[in-house]
From TrEMBL:
Naturally occurring in which organism (per UniProt): Streptomyces bungoensis
Assigned keywords, A-Z: Hydrolase, Metal-binding, Zinc
Coiled-coil segments: none
Name of the protein in its database record: Hydroxydechloroatrazine ethylaminohydrolase
InterPro entries: Amidohydro-rel (IPR006680), Metal-dep_hydrolase_composite (IPR011059), Metal_Hydrolase (IPR032466), MTA/SAH_deaminase (IPR050287)
Matching CDD domains: ATZ_TRZ_like (cd01298)
Length: 459
């Protein structure tokens, strides 16, 4: 790193979220190129060469960038619909609209989803995209292009559905792929876009949608495909009591046992929601190191229930946070999930002992990196890791009287982002994106939402 250009951040509070939970009331972070070179207490070391910028972080908390572990970007253009539905009714109401998306819609929706997350401190994002209407264009390419332009680190979970209404599934038949087409398209996406390198900006996972929208063959062969290609696996699991009933009626077992029977438990797997998990389910996830994307706002919006996150963490299950699709979490922000994860879990059996503010921050940073298989590269502020970090301003009216900066960030109002760095590149300054025109994105998302509404009404 001797020849790399350096950025020095100093005088701020620092929460490293390393294994020991190291924090500094006043400290520094040195970035060299796209890596973190040093983190420590007090002022940065003297005599550093090639320092191109110094940032005074007085009044700020410096943390790892937030990591989003579950999302559906295309839903950005169907926000505010079916607002009083449970999951199954909500899906039935919205699938006819979603089945009419096309490439320009998906690109605009991805831009909107990514912009909202990035300006709120997300440095690593993912998208679980599983709706591929016939003739709709290169949807995966459009999503990846939007992520590249926004400047965030990104995992595309290439989803699929092959169980339409005629086969007992929820999606309309014209919105699903055949088994063969889904597997072929998924493999092609991995081969074209997945980067396995340490500092990869784009990775791809294999991600059949859910037990009630894909066949057993697609789950089983999808798992085999992912392991043959050396990529991760993602799906929805144990989200609602209706799903539990569906699995028992169709497969004669609950979701976790069903997933295990198809090869879908393992340290290369993470599942969204996992709300309705019994003790044996949690033990199976812990034994296999299967990860969980906890989506507290979406779970509440769809009245799915309260996931047993404290019990999962106690058992050793890797857990991260997810925004989920913005048709069930209209804010589209991950930093609000820190607060909601803590508050909602305290309504459960563990009450005030459920989660602490620091556990919530860990879920949104290191926990998410674990779930995405990138904990060696990001998720904590440690020398040698990638330069993905955020400066949160905490000296304004909203937070200035809270002495503990981590409590201020998690429990207080949404903190302004003064600066966000991804791979050593600044992408946010004073709450505004530096990489894309937010106003232009807002216009295009509104136009594409209106176009989709017109097409749906005409159909």
């Amino acid at each position: 790193m001797a020849a790399a250009q350096r950025i020095v951040i100093e005088n701020g509070a620092i929460a490293t979220v390393d294994a020991g939970g190291t924090e500094y009331a006043r400290g520094y972070v040195v970035l060299a190129g796209n890596r973190i070179e040093a983190v420590g207490a007090g002022r940065a070391p003297e005599g550093l060469e090639n320092v191109v910028r110094r940032i005074d972080a007085t009044g700020h908390l410096v943390t790892p960038g937030l990591v989003n572990t579950h999302h559906h970007f295309y839903q950005w253009i169907t926000r505010g619909l079916a607002t009083d539905h449970n999951l199954f009714d909500w899906l039935v109401a919205l699938y006819p609209t979603w089945a009419r998306i096309d490439e320009p819609m998906v690109y605009a929706a991805a831009q909107g989803s990514l912009a909202m997350m990035a300006r709120g401190g997300v440095t690593t994002a993912m998208d679980h995209h599983y709706v591929f209407p016939r003739g709709s264009g290169d949807l995966s390419g459009a999503i990846i292009r939007a992520a590249r332009e926004t400047g965030v680190r990104f995992t595309l979970a290439r989803g699929s559905m092959d169980r339409g209404e005629k086969d007992g599934g929820l999606p309309p038949d014209f919105a699903v792929e055949t088994l063969e087409d889904a597997l072929a398209a998924t493999e092609a996406t991995v081969r074209e876009h997945h980067d396995a390198s340490f500092d990869a900006m784009t990775q791809v996972a294999v991600a059949p949608c859910s037990p009630f929208s894909v066949s057993t063959e697609l789950l089983r062969e999808g798992a085999e495909l992912a392991r043959r290609l050396g990529v991760r696996l993602h799906t929805h699991g144990s989200e609602t009591v209706e799903e539990e009933k569906f699995c028992h009626e169709l497969f004669g077992m609950g979701p976790t046992d069903y997933f295990e029977s198809t090869g879908w438990l393992g340290e290369d797997v993470w599942m969204a929601h996992c709300v309705h998990m019994n003790d044996s389910d949690i033990a199976a996830f812990a034994r296999t190191r299967t990860g969980v994307a906890h989506c507290p706002s979406s779970n509440a919006r769809l009245a799915a229930g309260i996931a047993r996150v404290p019990d999962m963490l106690a058992a050793g299950v890797p857990v991260g946070l997810g925004v989920d699709g913005t048709a069930s979490n209209e804010s589209g922000e991950l930093h609000t999930e820190l607060r909601n994860a803590l508050l909602i879990n305290r309504l459960g059996a563990h009450k005030e002992a459920a989660l602490t503010a620091r556990q919530a921050l860990r879920l949104g940073t290191y926990g998410g990196a674990q779930v995405l298989g990138r904990a060696a590269e990001t998720g904590s502020l440690e020398a040698g890791k990638l330069a993905d970090l955020v400066l949160w301003r905490l000296d304004t009216l909203a937070h200035a009287s809270i002495a503990d900066p981590v409590a201020a960030l998690v429990l207080g109002a949404a903190a302004p982002v003064t600066a966000s760095f991804v791979n050593g590149r600044q992408i946010v300054e004073d709450g505004r994106l530096l990489t894309v025109d937010e106003d232009a994105v807002a216009r295009s998302t509104r136009e594409e939402a209106q176009r989709l509404a017109r097409i749906t009404a005409q159909s």
